[in-house]
Design goal:
The complex is a heterodimer of chains A (about 160) and B (about 140). Chain A is mostly beta strands. Helix content of chain A is about 5%, strand content about 45%. In chain A, the strands form 2 sheets. A 6-stranded mixed β-sheet of chain A has the order 4-3-2-1-6-5, with no helix packed on it. Chain B folds into 2 domains: about 10-75, PRC-barrel domain (SH3 type barrels, Roll); about 80-135, SH3 type barrels (Roll). In chain B, strands 4-3-2-1-6-5 form a 6-stranded mixed β-sheet, with no helix packed on it. In chain B, strands 10-9-8-7-12-11 form a 6-stranded mixed β-sheet, with no helix packed on it. Classes of the chains: A mainly beta (about 160), B mainly beta (about 140).
């Protein structure tokens, strides 16, 4: 529904507002695709969270069982698509990890961050679900894109 | 402590995954190319899988022969073909049809949208990785 239709269809009851065109609707956000800094489509907006002071952040669904909240400050624009200024580190889970010698160490099972920020501290890598994971500090990571390549070797 | 072997055999390379500098597994190494005259290894063929063309990588683009994988030092431009091109607001501009390079660096991309074809210089590209994001006030050129 465009804004003209919205204004036509909704009578305004307000002492202050005469024009609702300047407002954004929740419908303008929900369902929009979210694109990371690297240009990857990482999910869709499923919810918009706000307080009495305005919109605070957005809930993104990156899979059927995977949802995460992103602060509004991490969005550069929400227009045709919602464009992020970051590559969310929580999406590293499941990525394959290679050491500098080309050895496959396993997949990222969990990540450790500074609080709830997007600053990565370490990743825990497991070869199998029940195997004991190895913790790799962020300083040992060389490439963190499609998969993870380390700048050192691991046994 | 084990000693690293300096000489490896074809068995140590064939069947291994080839990984580009982004960490993406491009495919499996299926062939080794050897120069008959110099008797030197000149490159490898990577099988990208069903419906995708095989890739040839010359020896100078192979970073190292690893334990489980072979690291490449160059991202194949074919990887960018078909990627969505978005402006800084996320508006769909088109899809990458062709990539022009000079000395292994992208100089421009050819973008198609329906019947429209145009080119965008690399100076107007903000990000080219999983998708292409353009800089604000980008310019389009004729193909």
């Amino acid at each position: 529904m465009d804004k003209t239709t919205k204004e036509k269809q909704i009578p305004i009851v307000s002492d202050k507002e005469k024009n609702v065109l300047k407002f954004e609707s929740m419908r303008d956000y929900v369902g929009k695709q979210v694109v990371s800094k690297s240009g990857e489509q990482i999910g869709t907006i499923v919810d918009v969270l706000f307080t009495d002071k305005g919109v605070k952040g957005i809930v993104v669904a990156s899979g059927p069982f995977s949802r995460f909240y992103v602060d509004l400050s991490f969005f550069s624009t929400i227009s045709d698509k919602a464009m992020l200024t970051i590559n969310p580190v929580i999406l590293l889970v499941g990525k394959e990890v290679f050491d500098s010698d080309g050895k496959k160490l396993g997949r990222v099972s969990t990540i450790k961050r500074k609080g709830n920020s997007n600053d990565l501290e370490a990743v825990v890598v497991k070869k199998r679900i029940y195997s004991k994971g190895i913790q790799i500090p962020a300083s040992d990571i060389d490439v963190m894109k499609k998969n993870i390549i380390l700048n050192t070797t691991y046994k | 402590m084990g000693v690293k072997r300096k000489v490896i055999t074809s068995d140590d390379i064939l069947g291994k995954d080839a990984v580009d500098p982004d960490g993406q597994i491009l495919g499996v190494i299926t062939k080794l190319h050897i120069d008959k005259d110099s008797k030197q290894l000149v490159g490898i063929t990577i099988d990208q899988g069903f419906m995708k063309p095989n890739l040839f990588f010359g020896l100078k683009y192979i970073k190292n022969f690893g334990v489980d994988t072979v690291f490449l030092s160059k991202i194949p431009t074919e990887k960018y073909i078909g990627l969505d091109v978005l402006d800084e607001k996320g508006k769909f501009i088109g899809s990458v049809k062709k990539v022009t390079t000079k000395r292994n660096k992208v100089t421009s991309i050819e973008v198609h949208r329906g019947m429209r074809k145009f080119s965008i210089a690399s100076s107007d590209i903000q990000e080219i990785s999983e998708g292409v994001i353009l800089k604000p006030n980008y310019k389009i050129g004729e193909v």
